[in-house]
């Protein structure tokens, strides 16, 4: 930690020279931007402190999207895939933001250093005890990002709602006006979506769903225990199936051989959004003789499941609306 | 009679002087080249830093925090890894080739790097290990592969093509197992493992690097000390034995030294292919008559690896692991080597 | 590599009387294993249900008959063909190169096939095993030709050592390039990872019909090489003295191997060890006569492959282990034993 101090000094100086143009404090209850001292308790429990509120932020993909939804624009973003395909970033205007990486484990720390950041934001992964982009297994150099500035982030865990709330808090501490109408609108929309979803679930009694991902060699059934968005859906009353025997080495999934593809018979299939297309169901039906032995697949009762990426109220609301439509249309007697 | 003898003696001495002079020049120019590449590696990146600034920063002569961070924290480890790994691979490759009296007998060709790779991938994928544990496993894997091969090929002594064939078989065997282990991995881990498998100097950790340089400091001089019996061995087993050299013992000592060097190099940078294979022959060609210099081979190895990494990271459109470049360049060289030796009828 | 002693004719004659019935018995074992492969699996289906499905041979829509007819039967047939192809290809490679460790992997066939498949995925953007077949096939042939061309330079032609070395060099180079391409393309890595294991899972009728003609033709052609391989085993000079066209025999043998191994690799990915280990077992049983080694390899290999596949399906149910993984565990000790104890020079 001692190493980043001199750099931090330069960074603060740079930020000061760059001008605190964004510092148009309206004087209402929001904390004063670029004033200080500032502190935030991250998901790791560690308190990050600074003399001034950070303004030059480097963030990981989804975390950057979350901050941007509250009006905090980072100076740099590192993503795990091309920012044109990253589900969090593909619809955002990233002009003026430096892209520091488009592949997991690879961050251009040299470029990051030239941005003189004063805060790094990445989700905290409790199981791996590391922030996004600095886990075990990434390039050794990428980890040195942490030497440029203090790192913080909300804990990835049991709920996307908690994650979104965490970033709302972080954004607020960084000077975002989370109560301003256009920002709060997202949260309001999300709350309405949740209400509609709960209503649809309650109206369709007995509906069971399973989150699945068919692949060439096997069918994978997701374990909600390790998928926060599925836990959220469960908490809102949806009967998301918990697989009986998840892979002990990789408990995110239970693996079913194609012979056993019909082990579970849900009424609606939540299809891994990373491989879902409008024609995917028919294609797999043709390719794998047993896929249509799943009655829901045969009936075409499938919907994309936003697997493992959601960070913002807005995205969650959009995805939730799709799920609501699918839940309303689903027949609770398909799977029997 | 006496006149002829002294004339011959004088000629030999003059010859040796010429040879020494040539090898001195070659060594000096190689050292300069390696140093230049070492500095250049630290000059280029997302932005350029002047050569003097680089040297000043590394030697702690100047104080410029932003330059220091980039040079010392980010670029120095890569450059140092390239240097150290290249030295180790070059030295060990030439030792292997000389002891086994076969230009093909480099550790990357006979399964030792594959053994190290298997152990490392096993650690990454199945034990979720990282850093020093992976290095330790790689070391164990290299030693295991070498021991396995030594034991399997021992019956006839470790000479000739039998050793090589068994080594190639073992390499294929390990590579097969690596494939199986990789399929047990999830995508990100598989990418990481693939990266590790090809070999790259850009991901060296500090602990591994320190181990490597410590090893080089001890083992390089040791290998040079052992060069005299090595030279005797070069004359052929029977000659060496009649000269009174305990051939097998010297062999084992030298192979052991080279093996640890390889294992240390693999644990820093992964199994980078072909550097060990080509460093020795290139050094020999440069040196002319005074062949077999371990230091020259080590320097050639370092120059090759630093150059390959520059190409892999900065010249190609997407940065690739160093091993991809050495493999893509080295394989045609090897095929050419095989083709020419075959054409001369010395291919076995 | 010392030259093997010529097969003792008396011993061969005596053995032949036992080897013929042995071959018939192996056919019986293969039939039994095939039956196991159709009736056993990661899903429990009643025997009567399976038999009914087999008798009518019509998918009546029940899960039992769909799995039997559309999953297990094609898979079993593919296993038999691929196993036979790998076993025979391995035996021929070992005979031609007189190298006990000769194997499709060592000779560059797998890496050639893989390189072409990667090319198809990344550069041409093609997908699907049906397409890979052709590319793997072309890659296998290309690699073998390159290896053979380099090894045959020089007066004494393509000696075992030169072949093995050239094979290793080509493998190393192709592997580097392939890895380099894959590293820059996540899609390709994901796609190739499953193809790379060696698996019979997820291979159904379209793939079977796609590769079966090649495999059948290759198998028939392969059986005709027994005499020629016996000649080569005596050493090149002796073979020449016996009036054999050594170069021509080699070329023909390699063409057959490329067809067999290329098609098998395209269908199932590189399945290792079978082609390496089975011919040694066959040689242990039959002695050095390739007229017996080839058919024995052809029957033993599918038995081993199907057994490994059934094992992988049953032990991990409701999941499955890829057959490549099972073979790795089962055959690795056998491989070590062969390298250690077999009289390597006897090949």
TrEMBL record, chain A:
Compartmental location: Cell envelope
UniProt-listed SUPFAM superfamilies: Helical backbone' metal receptor (SSF53807)
Top-rank lineage group of the source organism: Bacteria
Signal peptide (residue range): 1-18
A family per Pfam: Peripla_BP_2
Gene3D superfamilies linked: Nitrogenase molybdenum iron protein domain
Keyword vocabulary terms for this entry: Signal, Transport
All copies of domain Fe/B12 periplasmic-binding, residue ranges: 46-334
PANTHER family listed in its UniProt record: FERRIC ENTEROBACTIN-BINDING PERIPLASMIC PROTEIN FEPB, IRON III DICITRATE-BINDING PERIPLASMIC PROTEIN
Family to which this protein belongs: Belongs to the bacterial solute-binding protein 8 family.
Protein name: ABC transporter substrate-binding protein
UniProtKB/TrEMBL annotation, chain C:
Record has Transmembrane as a keyword: yes
Main location: membrane
Classification via SUPFAM superfamilies: ABC transporter involved in vitamin B12 uptake, BtuC
Compartment(s) of residence: Cell membrane
Membrane topology: Multi-pass membrane protein
Alphabetized UniProt keyword annotations: Cell membrane, Membrane, Transmembrane, Transmembrane helix, Transport
Pfam assignment, any one: FecCD
Record's keyword annotation contains Kinase: no
Transmembrane segments: 76-93, 105-126, 132-151, 163-184, 204-230, 251-278, 290-311, 323-342
Family: Belongs to the binding-protein-dependent transport system permease family. FecCD subfamily.
Protein name per the record: Iron ABC transporter permease
